[in-house]
Amino acid sequence: MNYWGFHPSYFEALSRHFIQFVAEQGTNPKSEFYIPYVVNKQLEHEEIKLSVLPNNEQWYGVTYQEDRPIVVEAFKKLIEDGIYPPSLW
User: Which of 7, 21, 67, 72 has the highest Cβ tally under 10 A?
Assistant: First the structure.
């Protein structure tokens, strides 16, 4: 799973890339604005530095409606195994 922490000044770069993304992909309902793409571009140009904090947990994507049954089943198992509580609220 991607969990990003950015300095507030970084959102200016994201905004520029997002404007370009909307101009190119704005009519495509399946298009996604990938933050890692922007980060990679800036790393290639040595405009930023970053740190990666590793973990060993499973990632579950919930981008599309088709992802839902897989994630629901995975969360049921996490609850059954006592990793997640039955209710978070």
Answer: 21
